[in-house]
Amino acid sequence: MKISGVDIRPGNIIEYEGGIWRAVKIQHTQPGKGGAYMQVEMKNLIDGRKTNVRFRSAETVERVRLDTKDFQFLFADGDMLTFMDKDTYEQITLPTDLLGDAAAFLQDGMDVVMELHDEKPISVQLPDQIEATIVEADAVVKGQTASSSYKPAILDNGVRIMVPPHISAGTRIVVDVYEQTYVKRAD
Predict the structure, then answer these.
(1) Would you say the C-alpha torsion 126, 132, 135, 139 has a positive or negative sign?
(2) Were 25 and a residue from 8, 41, 132, 174 both cysteine, which residue would form a disulfide, CB within 3.0 to 4.6 Å?
């Protein structure tokens, strides 16, 4: 399906120069001289390269439709991750770097959505938010402003995030997987 270069939105998968790319960030620019264009930061879904491209409104790009399938994360073995197809119970092994920073948030038995292009897995989508336990949190410094002072904390998966001062070690919290930020206390 062809779309205009200025209709690209974050998350769109497009075919560009023979590769499959995901639009990460977009910025619409209307300079005083010349036509408007869309500045698109894209990440290659096959090899992980990043690039910035300017698309003018007259240019068209091919938008790629990916097949999605429900999988369940089973276990990690070194730098390989094993997933199971929830329909056929078939197992598939993928490299950890396919998930990027989100790989640290994988939990045994977690349901994920795998995106496939020509039956080949090219990305794995985790839930946007997960629950995690704080294992280590810095003490609150007396006299710091209470309103916006966040302190560093380490989650049970080893990821370091910033949390509000009232959160202490042992607390279960909800974390945004892709932003790696504190959302709220877990119920």
Answers:
(1) positive
(2) 41
Cα distance between residue 175 and residue 128, in whole Å: 8
- The pLDDT tens digits for 17-40 are 888 888 888 888 888 888 888 888
Token pair recorded at residue 82: 């094993």
Which tens digit of pLDDT belongs to each residue from 58-115? 888 888 888 888 898 888 888 888 899 888 988 888 888 777 777 788 888 888 888 8
Q: What is the 3-state secondary structure (H, E, C) of the chain?
A: CEEEHHHCCCCCEEEECCEEEEEEEEEEECCCCCCCEEEEEEEECCCCCEEEEEEECCCEEEECCCEEEEEEEEEEECCEEEEEECCCCCEEEEEHHHCHHHHHHCCCCCEEEEEEECCEEEEEECCCEEEEEEEEECCCCCCCCCCCCCEEEEECCCCEEEECCCCCCCCEEEEECCCCEEEEECC
* Dist. CA 146–CA 153, nearest whole Å: 17
